[in-house]
């Protein structure tokens, strides 16, 4: 084992590396940082443009929607007026009809009572007329027999 140790101590190892000249690490880091910052700036600008476009699209959509809501509100108001006018007129005509029906009913009752009174009067007069006729016939017969 001693022999192996002596051999190891006396042998020299020669290592050669074929490498390009090394650059300084700080310069390399600076270059990489500049590349990434340029990429970040590019993406930041693109994101700002995209956000601006989205904001404009939303503003346009909001404007369009608010106009649609306004038009819808106006149409609703017009339809309410269109609906309410006939509804009011209908209610007025319905009240008028009910009033006329009550008047007709009262008039019919009044005429029915009047007709009943007149029929009673006619019946009484007819009875009196029959009585008078019978009386006249009796008197006529009595005069003839005399």
Automatic annotation (TrEMBL):
**PROSITE patterns in the record:** IF_ROD_2 (PS51842)
Any single GO CC term annotated in Swiss-Prot or TrEMBL for this entry? intermediate filament
Residues in coiled coil: 22-53
Q: Which Pfam families match?
A: Filament
- Keywords carried by this UniProt record: Coiled coil, Intermediate filament
Q: Which domain of life is it from?
A: Eukaryota
> Which GO-annotated molecular functions does the record name?
structural molecule activity
The answer to whether keyword Coiled coil applies is yes
Protein name in the entry: IF rod domain-containing protein
> Which example biological process does GO assign this protein?
intermediate filament organization
Q: Does the entry feature the keyword Protein biosynthesis, yes or no?
A: no
Fetch the Gene3D superfamilies from UniProt.
Single helix bin
Q: Which residues form the IF rod domain?
A: 1-146
């Amino acid at each position: 084992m001693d022999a192996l140790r002596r051999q190891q101590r006396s042998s020299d190892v020669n290592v050669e590396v074929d490498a390009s000249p090394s650059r300084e690490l700080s310069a390399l880091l600076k270059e990489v940082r500049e590349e990434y910052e340029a990429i970040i700036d590019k993406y930041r600008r693109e994101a700002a443009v995209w956000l601006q476009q989205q904001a404009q699209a939303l503003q346009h959509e909001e404007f369009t929607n608010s106009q649609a809501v306004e038009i819808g509100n106006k149409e609703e108001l017009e339809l309410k007026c269109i609906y309410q006018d006939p509804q009011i007129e209908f209610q007025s005509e319905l009240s008028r009809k009910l009033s006329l029906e009550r008047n007709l009913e009262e008039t019919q009752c009044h005429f029915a009572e009047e007709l009943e009174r007149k029929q009673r009067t006619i019946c009484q007069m007819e009875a009196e007329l029959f009585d008078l006729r019978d009386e006249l016939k009796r008197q006529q017969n009595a005069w003839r027999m005399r």
